[in-house]
Structure formats: structure tokens, C-alpha cells
Amino acid sequence: MRGLLFVLVSALILFLPYFLRETVYGFDAYFYVNQFSLSTPTVAVLCFLSFLACGIIFYFIAGKKATPLFLALGSPAWLIHFYKFENELLAMPFIMLAIYFYLNKKDFKAIASLIPAGFFFKGSVIYLIAFIPGHLIYAILSALIIIASAPEWNFLLPITEVSESHPLVGIWWWGFLLIPFLLMLSNWLHEKKKPLGRLQTATFILCVMGVLSARWVPFSVPFLALMLRDWLDRKGAGAYLVVLVGTIGLFFSMLFVLYGGPPTPGDLDLIREAERIAWIEDLPLKNTWPVGYWIESEFPGRSTARAGGNWQQDFNNSVVVAHSPLDDSWKAKFKACGGVRSEKYSELFLCWAL
């Protein structure tokens, strides 16, 4: 019971910044918020419950030694995944169940758990690929799913136009990915080069996938914690203390990042001001695509640019809400516009004929 209580208290601490926020965290999350008319407290509770469910399942996978590592190491990569209210959120508890069954060699139960996970998030197929060394059935299902979903199967590969799928971002995360890889190698050498087990092979595959696309980095966190547990068991209590102290620093730094993440109340107020100016000046309200869902949350039914590719639109004679910070290519488009207001994650421009 004490272990489960620790999971609950840790989850509450990790989500305290979300419970204190006035806005839902993220950009694309507002698509789902708008679809179901959800409030910020409701979203925060749903995100918390999904994270808590995963923590409880992991406790039954790994026990009391690995669970603190899972919660602490998860704060940079794993936690931010749960702050984003997107379709992956509903898939994660089923994915954790699949990991539990896979590591206990209950392969058909693992597959059964991945079916609802795949319904919510098609990227769940990444675990079928990671589990391939465990049983031939995973390889067969992976091939069938990829063939059936063609030409959309390329969601598994790098997408340079999207930061969360960019390989350079994945390489940046190698500070985490390198740890399980080295520990896997260390344990393998320590055990006199015995064949790699299910945990080690799944970790290795997820490490490779994480380098190809940053989107897959959070999915390696449960395996990272398990690898650390096996390594620290050989090193003793002192090693546990060093790792926990280091990860607690990351833990608190992430809390500040998440509390101040997009959008701020000022960003949404800027959108309301843009609407007022557009009405007064009798001009259309336009936007760069990252903030499109924010505008729709403030003014339901308004048509916005909300997908990549809309940077080619004409901003002449319009009021424009742009994301911030702007890169050089975006700044060039607004160089002749008058800056009206700037917030942490958005800017307001009044653009006449250029």
C-alpha cells in the first residue's frame, strides 16, 4: 500500500502546476478541447488520471525500487507527454498494460491491450515493432498494420516539418536514450554476454526509433526506469541516491517549464483584442497556423488557419495573430506590418497593403 500511496502523492505533485494553470497546456490540445467543450480543470483531471493509471500499472510491473525512477526520470520526457491533452493520452494506460503482459510473456494479452491503444493512437504500433524479438506474432501484426495503413505508414518515420517528429530533436534527447543503451550493454557484459532478453531488445529498438523521430522518445521511459533498476541493483543504495538527486533537479525544472507553457492568459486575451480591432477596422482576422485552435476556442465557429502549409496566405489588409517567437522567414512576412501587442507565445499585427 505504501508504494501505491507514493505513486498517488508523486502524481499529485507532478500535476500541481497543471491544477494551478488558467489555460489548457499546448497548441494542438485545443482541437480536442474545442471538439468536446472541455474546461481547463476537466482537462487537468483527465490528464492526471491517465498519468496516475500508468504509474499504478508500472508499480505492478517493476515494484517499489523502479517506480521512483520512473516518476522522476519521466518528468522531462514522459510528463510533458501527459500535459498535452491529445489522443495519445487515452492510449497510454493500455500501452502500459501491454508492457506488463509483454514482460510477463503473455503475448496475446499484450496484443489485446494494444488494440484499444491503437484505436486512440495509431502510433501504438511502435510497441508491436519493439516487441518483435519476443514473438513472431508481433512481426506479422506489425507488417499487416503497416501494409493496411499505407500510405500513412510513414508516420513512423522522421518528419522534418514537425518539431515533435524531427530527427535532430530526437538526437537531442539522446541524453536519456543513451542511458538505457549503455546500461543494456553493461548488464549484457556483466552477465557474460547472455542473449538479450525482452526488456533489453525492446529498449534498444525504442532507442533507435527515438533517434529517427523525437515523437517516440517518451515511449522509452518505462524501459529506461527498468534498465536503471537492474543496473542500480548491482551498484547498491549509493547509486540509487545519486540518480534520484540528479533526476529531482530535472523534476523541479520541468514543473516551472510546464507551469509557464503555452498559452498564457495573456495570449488568449491578445486574441480577444485582435477580434475587437478586426471588428472596429472592418478587416479580416487571420493567423499563423500554430495558434489557430486557440482562436477557435475563444470564438467557436470561426474559420482559421490551423494546419501546416498556411504560411503562403496573404496577410495584406488584415489583423493577424502570429505565434511567438517568429523565425526569420515569418518575420520577413510581417516586416511592413505594425506590431500592436506581444505576449509570451503570440504577437498581434495590423497589416495594411504591402
Output the keywords.
354 residues, mainly alpha, 4-stranded mixed beta sheet, 16 helices
What does this protein structure show overall?
The protein is mainly alpha-helical. Helix content is 63%, strand content 6%. The chain has two domains: 258 residues, no CATH class; 87 residues. A four-stranded mixed beta sheet has the order 1-2-4-3, with helices on one face. A hairpin with a 3-residue loop joins strand 3 and strand 4. Helix 2 packs parallel to helix 15. The longest helix is centred in the first third of the chain and has 23 residues. It starts with a helix and ends with a strand. The relative contact order is 0.10.
The outline comes out as elongated
Strand order of the largest sheet: 1-2-4-3
| Sequence stretches where pLDDT stays below 50 over 5 or more residues | none
Order of helices and strands: HHHHHHHHHHHHHHEHEHEE
Largest sheet: 4 strands, mixed
Q: Could you say which structural class the secondary elements and strand pairing correspond to? A: mainly alpha
> Distance between the terminal alpha carbons, to the nearest Å?
67 Å
Outline of this structure?
This protein is mainly alpha-helical and 354 residues long. The protein has 16 helices and 4 strands.
